[in-house]
Structure prediction request, 466 residues.
Amino acid sequence: MPPTHPTPHAIAGMITRLNDPQYSRWAAQLRATGGCRQPIHMRGRVLHVDRATGRLLHSYTTTGEPDGVLRLPCKTRRASRCPSCAEVYRADTYQLIRAGLVGGKGVPASVTAHPCLFVTLTAPSFGAVHTRREKNGKVQPCHARRDAETCPHGHVMSCMARHGDNEACLGEPLCPDCYDYSGSVLFNALAPQLWKYVTDALRRRVAKTAGLTLRELRQHLTISFAKVAEYQKRGVVHFHAVIRLDGPDGPTSPPPAWATAEMLTHAVQHAVKAVTATVPAAGDDPSRVLRWGRQLDIREITMDGELSDQAVAGYIAKYATKAAECVGTLDRRINPLDDLQAFNLRDHPRRLIAECLRLGELDELADLRLAQWAHMLGFRGHFSTRSRYYSTTMGSIRDERRDFARTEEITTGRLPLFDEDTVLVIVSWEYAGKGFSVGDALLVSALTGIPLAAPPDFGGDVDESA
Ligand SMILES: [Zn+2]
Ligand SMILES: [Zn+2]
Ligand SMILES: [Zn+2]
Prediction:
């Protein structure tokens, strides 16, 4: 998106805002959003009524606010849309993952004694891509192959370049025509299912190891998960997961003595190798079986080992705010009628998107909703998920912060302190828009020094951050 240019219209809007008698209230609203780049506008009222007498104790309405609306943070997870809200999301995710590793937020500190692994599951290869490899601090040639074959499209399957850190070709195929674009987007589409199969297979394997049935296992042990998806440069997702063994009641109860990190490691290796997902034949495309790539990284998380709880929570939180746009695709939905050439994408992401749109037309693959998720290169899963017992939830972390904000309002005298049981709170809100007018955008970027994007369109994208 292009930055906002100061058109006469925008300058006039900025001057109007600056001269508005409510300017300071407007500025205060913006500060309260924490510098959100696309605040949500809400219109409505909140009434506090005494339950016993029916007396109105306090009322608030947005009628008196600038433009008659209250501006709230957009709470997006995506750093490309709103850096400040994504930062809040990142910090919340960090707290949540960390609580599952060292305790806190209602999780007892004894959880540190539970066997816990950090596992990275990767996608298989869909064709040779340009990569940057380092060995003992020296950059290695990308694809050094003596007697390299020449593909049917005339490309020699070798690349002697020592690629730089940010070279655009990284993750792009040596021959795009040989590259398995169908496989890549179908893998993204089925990755959440493959993950689900891994968790099921893992439970079965652990039960078998212990000589228990699945039902019996539940009386001895819970396996808790937290995972995030990350896009590799080639445009496929891989998953980072924390897998922990708890007793039957979750983190508050110790796992049985036989449930060791070593046993869990073997079970994970087995489960990841064992599971497959089948894509039905569709159109001219034959049925295919997808599985995880051979690269599987399993490391134990310990308080004093090389992989600390802090490092893991940091990794997971970092990936939680990134989406597919870091591989050069778009951060919003694509309409199948859009002209892909007009988006100014590199060839590789454009082909991945085109493949999603092509497969999205096939009835047999309708369930995968590939056209709707073309901008995500086929992946429609949640970026970060946790099993029920992992730790606290994102919602309760948000509530905690909201309670804090409410306490602030009460102590600063804006909202009177009520006994919650005796007061009826009547709330009615309606959505009244999003983002900034061009004048406000210009003013905000002048005040903050951060160039703001043009007012966002309403592309109907779903933000799965909840
Ligand atoms: Zn925001
Ligand atoms: Zn290369
Ligand atoms: Zn080729």
